[in-house]
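Following up on my earlier thread - several people asked me to post the actual chain instead of describing it. Fair enough. Here it is, all 125 residues.
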Amino acid sequence: MRFLSIALAALIATAGLVSLNASAAPDKLMTIAALNQDKAKLAGKTISAKGKVVKVNDGIMGRNFLHIQDGTGDAKNNDLTVTSKQTAKVGDQVTISGVVVLNKDFGSGYAYPLLIEEASITIKK
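Reply from S.P.:
Thanks for posting it. Predicted structure:
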């Protein structure tokens, strides 16, 4: 009987630690390929990703547009467009977090099948 009590206590303690670790885990970073693949399921949700800034257009329509790439995906889905009040420089390694928006059309030929809006940008030092 004592053995069962010890085993049960160990099981409860282990379950408690697993639960604690799961809740303390940071947000999972998504790859750009995965974002493109799962974009329909992610619409309206906040995601995090990281990559290298390859293009920057600041001050357009009250926001900054950044393009990041992480080496995943193919020629059709290896670039992620991000809008933010923050900015970065071409070549910076960044982590972004923002809301997934699909099929955003700004007019004048600027349409995005996948866009991350209102992003926070952290530049890796």
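The first helix runs from residue 2 to 24. That should answer part of your original question.
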